[in-house]
Design goal:
Strand content: 25-35%
CATH class of the largest domain: Mainly Beta
Shape: elongated
Helix content: 10-25%
CATH architecture of the largest domain: Beta Barrel
Structural class: alpha+beta
Largest sheet: 8 strands, mixed, barrel
CATH superfamily of the largest domain: Sortase
Number of domains: 2
Length: 194
């Protein structure tokens, strides 16, 4: 009669056999929790929200008189053409479909009569915590943000265009009154994607 030796598993293989299923279950739990908490990025990632083919957006701010579907054009920080015809998305900043981005949009306080820029951000200073800012991309996906901060900065203070750690935000900028010497900044955090 033959004796068979049983092959012993190495301790590393045994440990991997236990850890691998735990990692899979933990990953699925994190994804499920994201859906339960209404994470807009989990929803868009799994339900087909793709980046649009062009970067033009529309801006709506219900609490502001003249900001309903204002065109937002992508351009350099000093792109007067974009500012003339609507609002300007500063090209070096993020887009709403990018997780952790700071979507930086500048608009004129006065603007040009007869254009979408005319008085577009005239009443930006009236926004309060909790007010909504809505961006719509070229695919028709809407990104809703909730205002959480207002501040005034110097024109050369560029930290406001940087991403905000742990948040996806939109930043609206215009000049201060009465002398237009500084910049009024209003920030809002992404709350939903539809």
């Amino acid at each position: 009669m033959k004796k068979y030796k049983t092959k012993q598993r190495s301790p590393i293989r045994m440990l991997m056999a236990v850890i691998a299923p735990l990692l899979i279950v933990a990953g699925l739990a994190v994804i499920g929790y994201s859906f339960l908490m209404g994470d807009p990025f989990a929803t868009s990632a799994f339900f087909g929200a793709e980046p649009p083919s062009n970067s033009t957006m529309k801006l709506t701010v219900p609490e502001m008189q003249r900001v309903e579907e204002v065109p937002v054009y992508d351009g350099a920080m000093n792109d007067e053409g974009a500012l003339h015809d609507g609002a300007l998305h500063v090209r070096s900043t993020g887009f709403p479909w990018q997780h952790g981005s700071n979507v930086y949009i500048a608009g004129h306080r006065m603007g040009f009569p007869g254009t979408k820029s005319y008085l577009v951000f005239w009443d930006l200073n009236k926004l309060e915590k909790g007010d909504e800012i809505i961006l719509t991309d070229a695919n028709g996906t809407t990104y809703t943000y909730e205002v959480f901060k207002e501040q005034v900065v110097a024109p050369n203070d560029l930290h406001v265009i940087q991403p905000v750690p742990g948040r996806s935000v939109v930043t609206l900028q215009t000049c201060t009154l009465p002398d237009y010497s500084e910049r009024l900044i209003v920030r809002a955090e992404l709350t939903s994607v539809a």
